[in-house]
Amino acid sequence: MNWWIALNGVVVREVLRFVHQRERFLGALVRPLIWLFVFAAGFRAALGIAIIPPYATYIPYEVYIVPGLIGMVQLFNGMQGSLSMVYDREMGSMRVLLTSPLPRGFLLFARLLAGVVVSILQVYGFLLVVALYGVELPAWAPLTVLPALALNGLMLGALGMLLASTIRQLENFAGVMNFVVFPLFFLSSALYPLYRMQEAGEALFLLCRLNPFTHGVELVRFALYGQVSGEALAAVLGATALFLTGAILRYSPARGMVGKAGVAAG
Fold this sequence. Notes:
By secondary structure, this protein is mainly α. Helix content is 77%, strand content 0%. It is built from 14 helices and no strands. Helix 7 (146-166) packs antiparallel against helix 12 (212-224). It is globular. Mean pLDDT is 81; it is low at 256-266.
């Protein structure tokens, strides 16, 4: 019962924070919608998509890019969650939370799960706009994609938590994110099929195959059509376990204060 109360409290706190920050919801939608309305429109004629799984026929570029933009929503939410972790650690709320008798790993997982719930709410808001825009997806897509959203959100949230565990001060966050978010997004199948990357070069293709974000996007892509990619599922589960274990082992609520103390002593 104590574990459930703690989990419920952490999740509800994050959801209420998200609900009260309307600009955060709008910001989460504006970024992928710009790509959908502008980028996809410009590349519709220039970039043809061959028949590749899970598609049974030729598709417009807008249909192909939707899973990648869903991944974008969850990627930036995961990174924003890590920023919140750094802020909470600096301001003291995470140190207070971790003084409870519950295991640190469980409390960090509860925080991670809260971020996943918020990211799923953002994705469903994006899917609603996509449907109004006229992009055709299967009628059952909002239901079948839910497990993939949860797994992808866990992986990206765990990655953000691992980054938060290594960042000593809030001021260093923006620089680290620039070297993580953009390579993850552009070196993936979010915008272009992997066979296009292979045509550009084997080294680029290999980087895209090793990118966990690629497998997260493909997991969502297949789930939208009621299918499961075994390779993507295994990669996402493995990456999630690796990132979460590293975050739990490395996270210290005193890390930011230690860094400041060292600077002050110098």
